[in-house]
Structures are given as C-alpha cells and as structure tokens.
C-alpha cells in the first residue's frame, strides 16, 4: 500500500514537471512611418502622443503622426476628447478592446468579437482596460489618496549667546478623482507651519520668535475650472503682537491656467475674522479675501510654489492684512528635497511698538509623501 502511494506521488510529480509552461503574452508592436519597428508594451496615450515601453529602447513617447501601425495583444479603453465621465456611470459607450491602429484610425476588437473604430484625432486618452474599469468603479475613502510634503529645519548655537531655531511644516492635499482623464470633483487642502526661536544671554532679556499658521480648505468643483470653497485659517505671530487670528470664509475659485506642469488658481471669498492681540485689543471684522496660487513643475522634479492673499476689512478700513510667499523644492534623493522658502506677512494695525511686516526665510529638508 505504501509502495502504491509512492508510485502515485512520483507519477503526479512527473506529470506536473512535464506540463507546458504558461503561455507568455504576445508583445505589442509599434511601426513608425519610416518602417522602424518597436517591440514591447503600449503603456498609454494622451492627446497627440503615445507612451510605449520598448524591450530595447526603454520607455519612449511617440507622436501619433509618426506611427504607421500599432497592435496590442491586450485590451485598452479609448476616451474621446469630449467625453464626460464620472465614476460609477455606465461605461458601455466607451470603446474598449485590443488595438489595431492604421491610417490614423484606432480599431478596437472586443472579446465578444465586436469592433469599433475611433479616429486618432478624436482620442483624448487611451489606457489599459483593467485600469479604466478599476478607476470607474473605485470608492475612495477619506484616508486614501493624500499627498503632500513634510518639511523641517533646525539650528543650535552655543557661544556668548545661546540661540536655537526650529522650523517645520506639513502641507497635505487630497484631490478626487486622482485620474487626469476624469473631471475634478473635490479637493482638500490642509497645511500647518511653525517657526520658533530663542536667543538668550546672561544679564539680558530673552529674544523670542514664535510664529505658526494652520489652514484647512475644502473645494467643490462645479466644472473642470470653477469651484466653490470653504476655509478656516488660524495665525499667531509673536513678532507682530498677534496672539491669535481666526478667519472663516467661503467663496469661488477659478483655475485660470492649467497644463501638465503648471496651474494658476485665483480665488475670492467673504470672511469673518476675529483678532486677539497681546496688548489686549481685540476686534471682529467682516472682510473679503482675494488670493492667487501658482505651482510649476520643472525638469528633474524641481517644484515651485507661489501664492499671495490680501484681505481688506469692510467694517474697519485700517484693519487690512495680507501675505505672500514663495518656495522651491530641489530633489536630492528619491522623495527627499532641499526646501527654500520665503514668507512675508503684513498686518496694517498691530499694537504700538510692533512692526507691520514680518519676513521669514527658511531652509530645510522636505520629504514628499507621494
């Protein structure tokens, strides 16, 4: 009986050892108008260009106009330039299937045998069908899709004077959906920054720097470029005698300029402001906030961020304030960057003996979350 079991086990092992290996997927083929051929995998297409990963040349971007023929062995979805998509909609009208492109026309053959043709000029995006299906049916939770950066810097000096400074910040953003081929729906912005420093010397009063800023904003898009938003902002600045400034408001925003590398948003809001000063003078204000935010990505991952905000108060013409800042992140290793930032805040009615302007320049290290 034992011998029979051993023989059965050996026969089973021999059978599996002789089973043919799983068939390797056929490669995709791209043929240029001059006859040159690339073998590899089609990654995606956007606008007038295609991203193709070649076995020999690596990942390349090719204009549709330079392609004579393109064939894939796996299905893609082609999203038209004027298509209006939202998650969980019926996507049966979106062409899907294995791709064969000739004469600047994309033919898609579905598994059921049906074929549909889309002119290259009408194709806005093309991506693998599984990725398309996953994106359209996905339910993102609140803790999903957060991105941003954490920044920190510090210095310590021990001499006749002892000095220490610390700067830190967190900037988080969550934009839904994350896919560029779907129209924006919501965006959440959360930021916090702090600058603290102290200089001590025997026989002299301590000199202190104590500044922090915290803000929360929620955007809701009515169209790809117009959005409404609500915000809450909190500021403390020891150098200006400001114990705490609370601002709550809401308004409209417009994306005036947007490309794959840059974006310019302008915003206007009505706000309620409560100011508390160290001298004991407090005031409540009704004002408007006008702001612009510009971001730009350069080559090698360099990121520029610039913003200006001005808030006049309507019930006290002297109580206006504003802020302007610019920062530059220079990548040094993977997600780690050197951060350089300058921020100027202006308060027109600080307590007596305090200056209206407060300027900060900071340098530190930034870690990108995604």
Largest sheet: 12 strands, antiparallel, barrel
Mean pLDDT: 89
Oligomer: single chain
> What gap, in angstroms, lies between the N and C termini?
61 Å
How are strands sequenced across the largest beta sheet?
A: 10-11-12-13-14-15-16-17-18-19-20-21
What structural category arises from helix and sheet content? mainly beta
Radius of gyration: 29 Å
What fraction of residues sit in β-strands? over 45%
CATH A-level architecture of the largest domain: Beta Barrel
User: At the third CATH level, what is the topology name of the largest domain?
Assistant: Porin
Q: Quick one: overall form?
A: elongated
Report the top-level CATH class of the largest domain: Mainly Beta
The helicity comes to under 10%
According to CATH, the homologous superfamily of the largest domain is: monomeric porin ompg
Write down the secondary-structure element order.
HEEEEEEEEEHEEEEEEEEEEEE
């Amino acid at each position: 009986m034992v011998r029979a079991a051993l023989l059965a086990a050996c026969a089973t092992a021999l059978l599996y050892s002789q089973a043919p290996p799983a068939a390797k997927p056929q490669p995709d083929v791209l043929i240029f108008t001059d006859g040159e051929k690339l073998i590899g995998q089609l990654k995606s297409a956007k606008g007038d260009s295609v991203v193709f990963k070649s076995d020999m040349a690596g990942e390349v971007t090719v204009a549709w106009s330079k392609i004579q023929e393109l064939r894939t062995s796996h299905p893609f979805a082609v999203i038209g330039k004027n298509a209006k998509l939202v998650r969980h909609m019926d996507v049966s009208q979106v062409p899907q299937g294995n791709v064969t492109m000739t004469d600047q026309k994309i033919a898609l053959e579905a598994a059921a045998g049906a074929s549909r043709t889309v002119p290259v000029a009408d194709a806005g995006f093309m991506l693998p069908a599984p990725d398309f299906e996953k994106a359209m049916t996905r339910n993102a939770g609140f803790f999903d899709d957060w991105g941003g950066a954490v920044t920190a810097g510090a210095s310590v000096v021990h001499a006749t004077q002892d000095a220490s400074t610390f700067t830190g910040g967190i900037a988080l953003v969550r934009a839904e959906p994350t896919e560029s081929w779907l129209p924006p729906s919501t965006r959440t912005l959360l930021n916090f920054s702090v600058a603290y420093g102290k200089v001590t010397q025997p026989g002299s009063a301590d000199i202190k720097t104590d500044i922090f800023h915290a803000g929360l904003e929620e955007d809701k898009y009515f169209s790809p470029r117009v959005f409404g938003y609500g915000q809450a902002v909190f500021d403390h600045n020891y150098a200006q005698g400001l114990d705490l400034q609370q601002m709550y408001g809401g308004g409209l925003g417009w994306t005036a300029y947007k490309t794959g590398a840059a974006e310019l948003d302008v915003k206007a809001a009505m706000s309620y402001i409560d100011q508390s000063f160290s001298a004991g003078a407090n005031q409540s204000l009704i004002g408007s906030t006008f702001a612009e935010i510009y971001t730009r990505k350069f080559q090698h991952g360099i990121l520029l961020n610039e913003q200006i905000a001005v808030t006049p108060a309507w019930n006290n013409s002297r109580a206006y304030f504003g802020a302007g800042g610019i920062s530059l992140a220079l990548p040094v290793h993977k997600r780690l960057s050197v951060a350089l930032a300058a921020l100027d805040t202006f308060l027109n009615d600080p307590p007596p003996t305090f200056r209206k302007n407060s300027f900060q320049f900071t340098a530190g290290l930034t870690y990108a979350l995604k």
